[in-house]
Amino acid sequence: MKFKLSVLFFIMVFGITACKGPGGVRVIKLGHGLGVTHPVHEAMVFMADKLKEKSNGEMIIKIYPNQQLGSERELVELLQIGSLGMTKVSSAVMESFAPKLQVLSMPYLFTDDAHRDIILKGPIGKQLLLDGEDFWLRGLCYYDAGKRSFYTKSKPVSSPEDLKGLKIRVMESNTAINMVKNFGGSPTPVSYGELYTALQQGIVDGAENNPPSLFTSRHYEVCKYYSINEHTAIPDIMIISTKVWNLLSDQEKQWLQEAADESATYQYKIWAESVEESLSEMEKAGVEIIYPKHDGFREAVESMYEDLKVSDPQLYAVVDQIRKTQ
Protein backbone atom coordinates (compact mmCIF):
# COMPACT_ATOMS: atom_id res chain seq x y z
CA MET A 1 0.00 0.00 0.00
CA LYS A 2 2.86 2.35 0.92
CA PHE A 3 4.53 1.89 -2.46
CA LYS A 4 1.25 2.34 -4.36
CA LEU A 5 0.80 5.68 -2.60
CA SER A 6 4.35 6.72 -3.48
CA VAL A 7 3.74 5.82 -7.14
CA LEU A 8 0.55 7.91 -7.11
CA PHE A 9 2.52 10.78 -5.57
CA PHE A 10 5.11 10.65 -8.37
CA ILE A 11 2.43 10.58 -11.06
CA MET A 12 0.63 13.58 -9.55
CA VAL A 13 3.73 15.65 -8.84
CA PHE A 14 6.11 14.79 -11.66
CA GLY A 15 3.91 13.36 -14.40
CA ILE A 16 6.14 11.96 -17.12
CA THR A 17 9.63 12.97 -16.03
CA ALA A 18 12.05 14.52 -18.55
CA CYS A 19 9.49 16.92 -19.97
CA LYS A 20 11.04 20.28 -20.86
CA GLY A 21 10.82 23.00 -18.24
CA PRO A 22 11.23 26.76 -18.32
CA GLY A 23 13.75 27.94 -20.91
CA GLY A 24 13.50 24.67 -22.84
CA VAL A 25 15.77 22.78 -20.45
CA ARG A 26 15.09 19.04 -20.26
CA VAL A 27 15.51 17.67 -16.73
CA ILE A 28 15.82 13.92 -16.21
CA LYS A 29 15.45 12.59 -12.67
CA LEU A 30 17.80 9.78 -11.63
CA GLY A 31 17.23 7.90 -8.37
CA HIS A 32 19.43 5.21 -6.81
CA GLY A 33 20.11 3.50 -3.49
CA LEU A 34 23.84 4.09 -2.99
CA GLY A 35 25.59 6.59 -0.75
CA VAL A 36 27.24 9.71 -2.15
CA THR A 37 30.75 8.38 -1.45
CA HIS A 38 30.21 5.27 -3.59
CA PRO A 39 32.21 5.21 -6.85
CA VAL A 40 29.08 4.42 -8.86
CA HIS A 41 27.44 7.59 -7.52
CA GLU A 42 30.57 9.52 -8.49
CA ALA A 43 30.23 8.13 -12.01
CA MET A 44 26.62 9.34 -12.17
CA VAL A 45 27.74 12.84 -11.16
CA PHE A 46 30.38 12.64 -13.91
CA MET A 47 27.65 11.63 -16.40
CA ALA A 48 25.43 14.53 -15.34
CA ASP A 49 28.32 16.99 -15.75
CA LYS A 50 29.18 15.60 -19.18
CA LEU A 51 25.57 15.75 -20.36
CA LYS A 52 25.21 19.37 -19.25
CA GLU A 53 28.47 20.19 -21.04
CA LYS A 54 27.59 18.38 -24.28
CA SER A 55 24.11 19.88 -24.44
CA ASN A 56 25.28 23.38 -23.46
CA GLY A 57 22.89 23.24 -20.51
CA GLU A 58 19.89 22.08 -22.55
CA MET A 59 19.77 18.73 -20.69
CA ILE A 60 20.25 18.22 -16.95
CA ILE A 61 20.25 15.10 -14.76
CA LYS A 62 19.07 15.57 -11.17
CA ILE A 63 20.38 12.80 -8.92
CA TYR A 64 18.56 11.48 -5.84
CA PRO A 65 20.85 9.04 -3.92
CA ASN A 66 20.40 6.98 -0.72
CA GLN A 67 17.00 5.48 -1.64
CA GLN A 68 15.36 8.90 -1.36
CA LEU A 69 12.87 7.81 -4.02
CA GLY A 70 12.58 4.12 -3.09
CA SER A 71 14.36 0.78 -3.09
CA GLU A 72 16.12 -0.57 -6.17
CA ARG A 73 13.12 -2.60 -7.31
CA GLU A 74 10.69 0.27 -6.60
CA LEU A 75 12.82 2.61 -8.71
CA VAL A 76 12.70 0.17 -11.62
CA GLU A 77 8.92 0.06 -11.35
CA LEU A 78 8.80 3.88 -11.36
CA LEU A 79 10.79 3.83 -14.60
CA GLN A 80 8.24 1.48 -16.12
CA ILE A 81 5.42 3.96 -15.64
CA GLY A 82 7.57 6.91 -16.65
CA SER A 83 7.48 8.65 -13.27
CA LEU A 84 11.26 8.44 -12.96
CA GLY A 85 13.74 8.87 -15.77
CA MET A 86 16.81 6.81 -14.86
CA THR A 87 18.27 4.55 -12.21
CA LYS A 88 21.25 2.36 -11.52
CA VAL A 89 20.28 -1.25 -11.01
CA SER A 90 22.20 -4.46 -10.49
CA SER A 91 21.72 -6.76 -13.46
CA ALA A 92 20.62 -9.38 -10.90
CA VAL A 93 17.55 -7.32 -9.98
CA MET A 94 16.77 -6.91 -13.69
CA GLU A 95 16.15 -10.65 -14.04
CA SER A 96 12.43 -10.16 -13.40
CA PHE A 97 12.21 -7.55 -16.17
CA ALA A 98 14.79 -8.76 -18.69
CA PRO A 99 15.15 -12.55 -18.37
CA LYS A 100 18.30 -12.87 -20.49
CA LEU A 101 20.22 -10.72 -18.00
CA GLN A 102 19.98 -13.68 -15.64
CA VAL A 103 23.08 -15.09 -17.34
CA LEU A 104 25.25 -12.30 -15.87
CA SER A 105 24.37 -13.52 -12.36
CA MET A 106 25.67 -17.03 -12.95
CA PRO A 107 28.55 -17.85 -10.59
CA TYR A 108 32.05 -18.01 -12.03
CA LEU A 109 30.75 -17.12 -15.49
CA PHE A 110 33.82 -15.12 -16.53
CA THR A 111 37.33 -16.53 -16.55
CA ASP A 112 38.88 -13.15 -15.66
CA ASP A 113 38.37 -9.38 -15.98
CA ALA A 114 39.52 -9.35 -19.61
CA HIS A 115 36.90 -11.97 -20.52
CA ARG A 116 34.20 -9.98 -18.72
CA ASP A 117 35.15 -6.80 -20.60
CA ILE A 118 35.11 -8.58 -23.98
CA ILE A 119 31.56 -9.77 -23.28
CA LEU A 120 30.08 -6.58 -21.82
CA LYS A 121 31.66 -4.23 -24.37
CA GLY A 122 30.98 -6.51 -27.31
CA PRO A 123 27.86 -7.59 -29.25
CA ILE A 124 26.55 -9.88 -26.48
CA GLY A 125 26.67 -7.16 -23.83
CA LYS A 126 25.11 -4.54 -26.09
CA GLN A 127 22.25 -6.86 -26.99
CA LEU A 128 21.62 -7.67 -23.31
CA LEU A 129 21.28 -3.94 -22.55
CA LEU A 130 18.22 -3.87 -24.81
CA ASP A 131 16.59 -7.02 -23.47
CA GLY A 132 14.29 -5.07 -21.14
CA GLU A 133 12.78 -2.80 -23.80
CA ASP A 134 9.56 -4.84 -23.93
CA PHE A 135 9.24 -3.94 -20.24
CA TRP A 136 9.90 -0.20 -20.88
CA LEU A 137 13.53 -0.37 -19.68
CA ARG A 138 16.56 0.40 -21.84
CA GLY A 139 20.15 -0.12 -20.72
CA LEU A 140 22.60 2.67 -21.51
CA CYS A 141 25.86 1.29 -20.14
CA TYR A 142 27.44 -1.08 -17.63
CA TYR A 143 29.24 0.01 -14.48
CA ASP A 144 31.85 -2.18 -12.84
CA ALA A 145 30.40 -3.66 -9.66
CA GLY A 146 33.47 -5.76 -9.00
CA LYS A 147 33.34 -9.27 -7.66
CA ARG A 148 30.97 -10.33 -4.91
CA SER A 149 32.20 -12.29 -1.90
CA PHE A 150 30.79 -13.34 1.48
CA TYR A 151 31.02 -11.31 4.68
CA THR A 152 29.83 -12.75 7.98
CA LYS A 153 29.46 -11.98 11.67
CA SER A 154 30.27 -15.16 13.60
CA LYS A 155 32.93 -16.99 11.60
CA PRO A 156 34.99 -16.78 8.42
CA VAL A 157 33.93 -18.64 5.28
CA SER A 158 36.79 -20.72 3.90
CA SER A 159 34.67 -23.28 2.02
CA PRO A 160 31.02 -23.85 1.10
CA GLU A 161 30.67 -26.05 4.19
CA ASP A 162 31.17 -22.96 6.38
CA LEU A 163 27.95 -21.45 4.99
CA LYS A 164 25.74 -24.27 6.27
CA GLY A 165 23.24 -22.99 8.79
CA LEU A 166 23.95 -19.34 7.99
CA LYS A 167 21.25 -16.94 6.80
CA ILE A 168 22.83 -15.00 3.96
CA ARG A 169 21.26 -11.85 2.58
CA VAL A 170 20.80 -11.96 -1.19
CA MET A 171 19.30 -9.64 -3.77
CA GLU A 172 15.83 -10.35 -5.14
CA SER A 173 17.28 -12.70 -7.73
CA ASN A 174 16.37 -16.34 -8.28
CA THR A 175 19.89 -16.99 -9.50
CA ALA A 176 21.42 -15.55 -6.31
CA ILE A 177 18.99 -17.56 -4.19
CA ASN A 178 19.85 -20.80 -6.01
CA MET A 179 23.55 -20.05 -5.76
CA VAL A 180 23.53 -19.64 -1.97
CA LYS A 181 21.43 -22.79 -1.66
CA ASN A 182 24.02 -24.69 -3.71
CA PHE A 183 26.72 -23.38 -1.41
CA GLY A 184 24.73 -24.73 1.56
CA GLY A 185 23.55 -21.44 3.05
CA SER A 186 20.03 -20.13 3.66
CA PRO A 187 19.34 -17.30 1.19
CA THR A 188 17.36 -14.43 2.71
CA PRO A 189 16.28 -11.51 0.47
CA VAL A 190 16.56 -8.19 2.32
CA SER A 191 16.42 -4.64 0.95
CA TYR A 192 19.92 -3.15 0.76
CA GLY A 193 18.80 -0.11 2.75
CA GLU A 194 17.60 -2.35 5.58
CA LEU A 195 20.61 -4.67 5.62
CA TYR A 196 22.70 -2.91 8.29
CA THR A 197 19.87 -3.25 10.80
CA ALA A 198 19.15 -6.83 9.69
CA LEU A 199 22.79 -7.72 10.40
CA GLN A 200 22.73 -5.99 13.77
CA GLN A 201 19.54 -7.72 14.85
CA GLY A 202 20.58 -11.16 13.64
CA ILE A 203 17.87 -11.37 10.98
CA VAL A 204 20.73 -12.46 8.73
CA ASP A 205 24.18 -13.81 9.63
CA GLY A 206 25.96 -12.32 6.67
CA ALA A 207 25.71 -11.10 3.12
CA GLU A 208 27.69 -10.94 -0.11
CA ASN A 209 28.97 -7.94 -1.99
CA ASN A 210 32.02 -6.20 -3.43
CA PRO A 211 34.62 -4.37 -1.28
CA PRO A 212 33.53 -0.75 -1.98
CA SER A 213 29.89 -1.55 -1.18
CA LEU A 214 30.86 -3.34 2.03
CA PHE A 215 32.98 -0.35 3.03
CA THR A 216 30.67 2.54 2.08
CA SER A 217 27.65 0.80 3.64
CA ARG A 218 29.64 0.38 6.89
CA HIS A 219 28.44 -3.22 7.15
CA TYR A 220 32.01 -4.06 8.18
CA GLU A 221 31.18 -2.50 11.55
CA VAL A 222 28.96 -5.54 12.18
CA CYS A 223 30.65 -8.20 10.05
CA LYS A 224 34.32 -8.71 10.85
CA TYR A 225 35.01 -11.55 8.39
CA TYR A 226 35.32 -11.00 4.64
CA SER A 227 36.01 -14.07 2.51
CA ILE A 228 37.19 -13.16 -0.98
CA ASN A 229 35.82 -16.12 -2.93
CA GLU A 230 34.62 -13.87 -5.79
CA HIS A 231 31.65 -16.04 -6.78
CA THR A 232 30.08 -13.53 -9.17
CA ALA A 233 31.04 -10.46 -11.18
CA ILE A 234 27.58 -8.97 -11.67
CA PRO A 235 27.69 -5.55 -13.37
CA ASP A 236 25.52 -2.61 -12.53
CA ILE A 237 23.46 -1.16 -15.37
CA MET A 238 22.42 2.43 -15.95
CA ILE A 239 18.88 2.18 -17.31
CA ILE A 240 16.42 4.70 -18.66
CA SER A 241 12.65 4.45 -19.03
CA THR A 242 11.79 3.88 -22.68
CA LYS A 243 8.87 6.25 -22.11
CA VAL A 244 11.46 8.93 -21.37
CA TRP A 245 13.94 7.77 -24.04
CA ASN A 246 11.25 8.04 -26.71
CA LEU A 247 10.59 11.66 -25.74
CA LEU A 248 14.15 12.62 -26.61
CA SER A 249 15.24 13.94 -29.99
CA ASP A 250 17.97 12.09 -31.88
CA GLN A 251 20.46 14.75 -30.79
CA GLU A 252 19.43 14.41 -27.13
CA LYS A 253 19.74 10.63 -27.33
CA GLN A 254 23.25 11.00 -28.73
CA TRP A 255 24.28 13.43 -25.98
CA LEU A 256 22.94 11.15 -23.26
CA GLN A 257 24.45 7.95 -24.68
CA GLU A 258 27.85 9.60 -25.09
CA ALA A 259 27.72 10.94 -21.52
CA ALA A 260 26.77 7.50 -20.20
CA ASP A 261 29.58 5.77 -22.14
CA GLU A 262 32.16 8.27 -20.91
CA SER A 263 30.94 7.89 -17.33
CA ALA A 264 31.39 4.11 -17.61
CA THR A 265 35.03 4.55 -18.68
CA TYR A 266 35.58 6.92 -15.78
CA GLN A 267 33.83 4.59 -13.34
CA TYR A 268 35.99 1.59 -14.27
CA LYS A 269 39.06 3.64 -13.36
CA ILE A 270 37.87 4.92 -10.00
CA TRP A 271 36.37 1.51 -9.15
CA ALA A 272 39.75 -0.19 -9.24
CA GLU A 273 41.16 2.50 -6.95
CA SER A 274 38.19 2.17 -4.60
CA VAL A 275 38.62 -1.61 -4.22
CA GLU A 276 42.18 -1.23 -2.96
CA GLU A 277 41.29 1.63 -0.65
CA SER A 278 38.24 -0.18 0.77
CA LEU A 279 40.17 -3.35 1.60
CA SER A 280 42.94 -1.34 3.24
CA GLU A 281 40.57 0.73 5.38
CA MET A 282 38.57 -2.32 6.48
CA GLU A 283 41.72 -4.12 7.56
CA LYS A 284 42.62 -1.08 9.65
CA ALA A 285 39.15 -1.31 11.22
CA GLY A 286 39.79 -4.90 12.33
CA VAL A 287 38.14 -6.85 9.53
CA GLU A 288 39.77 -10.23 8.91
CA ILE A 289 40.12 -10.70 5.15
CA ILE A 290 40.34 -14.32 4.04
CA TYR A 291 41.40 -15.55 0.58
CA PRO A 292 40.00 -19.08 0.27
CA LYS A 293 40.66 -21.29 -2.73
CA HIS A 294 37.89 -20.98 -5.31
CA ASP A 295 37.87 -24.61 -6.47
CA GLY A 296 35.37 -25.89 -3.90
CA PHE A 297 33.03 -22.98 -4.52
CA ARG A 298 33.17 -23.52 -8.28
CA GLU A 299 32.37 -27.20 -7.93
CA ALA A 300 29.42 -26.48 -5.63
CA VAL A 301 27.62 -24.39 -8.26
CA GLU A 302 28.55 -26.16 -11.50
CA SER A 303 25.23 -28.05 -11.31
CA MET A 304 23.46 -24.72 -11.86
CA TYR A 305 24.75 -24.75 -15.45
CA GLU A 306 23.51 -28.29 -16.02
CA ASP A 307 20.12 -27.40 -14.57
CA LEU A 308 19.88 -24.34 -16.83
CA LYS A 309 20.72 -26.44 -19.86
CA VAL A 310 17.64 -28.57 -19.16
CA SER A 311 15.23 -25.91 -17.87
CA ASP A 312 15.98 -23.13 -20.39
CA PRO A 313 18.01 -24.23 -23.44
CA GLN A 314 17.75 -20.77 -25.05
CA LEU A 315 19.22 -19.07 -22.01
CA TYR A 316 21.88 -21.74 -21.71
CA ALA A 317 22.85 -21.03 -25.33
CA VAL A 318 23.69 -17.43 -24.30
CA VAL A 319 25.78 -18.75 -21.37
CA ASP A 320 27.53 -21.19 -23.68
CA GLN A 321 28.28 -18.41 -26.15
CA ILE A 322 29.76 -16.29 -23.34
CA ARG A 323 31.93 -19.12 -22.10
CA LYS A 324 33.23 -19.84 -25.61
CA THR A 325 34.00 -16.18 -26.40
CA GLN A 326 37.53 -15.28 -25.33
From TrEMBL:
Domain of life: Bacteria
CDD domains: PBP2_TRAP_SBP_like_3 (cd13671)
Entries under Gene3D superfamilies matching the protein: Bacterial extracellular solute-binding protein, family 7
Entry-linked InterPro entries: DctP_fam (IPR018389), TRAP_DctP (IPR004682), TRAP_DctP_sf (IPR038404)
A Pfam family of this chain: DctP
Keyword tags: Signal
Keyword Signal: yes
The keyword DNA repair is annotated on this UniProt entry: no
Alphabetized PANTHER family for the sequence: DICARBOXYLATE-BINDING PERIPLASMIC PROTEIN, PTHR33376
Name of the protein: TRAP transporter substrate-binding protein
Upper taxonomic lineage: Bacteria, Pseudomonadati, Bacteroidota, Cytophagia, Cytophagales
